[in-house]
Amino acid sequence: MRVFLAHSSAQASECERLVAKLRKRSFKVFYSADTIPVSEDFDRLIRAEIARCSAMIFWATPQSVTPGSYPLTEMGLASKRWPNPRNRVLAVLAGDLATGQVPGYLRDNIELFRPQGDLVTEVADAMVELRRRQTLALLLKFGTLFLFLAVLGCSAYAKYHYTKQARLDAIGQKLIKAALESPVYVDTCVRRLDNFSQYTHPFPVPQARCDARQVVESVKPPLLVVAQTGYGKKGFVQSVRATWAKQQRPAVLISYRDCVRGKPRQDRFDLKSCVAASVAQQTQATPEDVREWLAEQRDYVLIFDGIDDSASRERVFELIGDLFEFQKRGGSVVLTAQPENLQYVLARYGIDESADWIRRGLPTVDVRGINVNSVYRLASDYEEHRVDPKAVQAVLDFPQRCPAAHDMIQEWISQPKLFREQGTHTVLPVVKQMDALGANCAGWRSGVLGALLRARFWSYCHDELCNYRVEGEKYLAAAKELRDQGGGTDEMRLAAVAKEQGLKDADELAFALLSTGALFYDAGQLKFDPAWIPD
Q: Based on the number of CB atoms within 10 Å of its own CB, is 83 exposed (0-12), middle (13-18) or buried (19 or more)?
């Protein structure tokens, strides 16, 4: 049954609880707060939804029955469709509203419903009863003569419909189950921005233990999530996805690399096919059921883990354009990106409406890694990040020996991705260089800083993006040459240095250096940070 919820904004909290409970009971609920996208024609969509719904819940409160209120407009549209509201409209009296204040269309034709206990539970139970009465009334209309054929036909339809609906419902439930089982990172440091244009560099080092739960539990799509490292943003969106799963709202989480892995680069980026393939793989549903489930774009959130590397630049605006259109059609979108790389591609290629949507149209969450107080928990609680505690302590203690390294160590160790694979390519080589210094701090910018930067190159390359041992050394050599040349950094310089190092083009070098912090954007200009380049 499709239900239209008419209410005033004062009941938003109760409405959200009611919507979640009704959806658990297989109702399709039209609720304007989470259903109407910003770009839609509000009045047109309201009329269309009332025309197609099977029932209406009218939340009767002093605010909703005030002359001029929008809920009265919605009730008026319902009265034109159903002159008699019996078995069609559930009028819920809430607060201190007197019966005499209820519009005559409801007061004179149906019994008004005033909950005595938990309001949300009793309203949901009442809607189950209303659905039962509608079904019974439909059967009785056929009369005795055609009863046998009607029952037979309804039984056949019900068997087909509910079996199919059960399969479609199972897709959402499997995605919800997967979200609840994914690891979350509640001690990630995050900050909320009105839009991406407010993002700033350099990377602010978290100074205190962080707790992202308040942000995780309050954000809603559409949303842009940016983070210096992949596991910062992935951990955050996994936490958000799990929160929505607890509210019985499924989300589809896919990545750019999942969509293009193994395909020729000249192939057009096909978001629709990629999403369908991912959902089918995650849920083991048939392609036909997946396509039908995905067609209800308002019933799920699409989370796309996107722009991280030079390989994505050739298709990135096909992706952004597709996500923009998905939202315009009523879908809910979350896009994640490495912020410096995203600024780079927007500056070079972003000139259309969808690029401006990314810059200024999306609320943004800036994920800033973890505080040092949380490092031990990360390195012990998560199998994929587990590192020898002695090695972690050695890195944390190094600034006591070499105070000049304090800020870089604090920034470096705040990035969860650097703990992958037990620190084989990251923490352990850094500790080895620290041990080689002994008690002397001289030369740390050569050995230790070199190991820190190589670890960042590994975190950029390790997902089959590039050959860490070959390209990583080229990136390091190119960074040193750019530092030695001095002055500003532009595309011509990047292209010349990239060619000298045997790299494909300026973009390949720019993405690697942007991902490690050696390059960054400031006031729309690409700048070079020599502090991160070893001697």
A: exposed
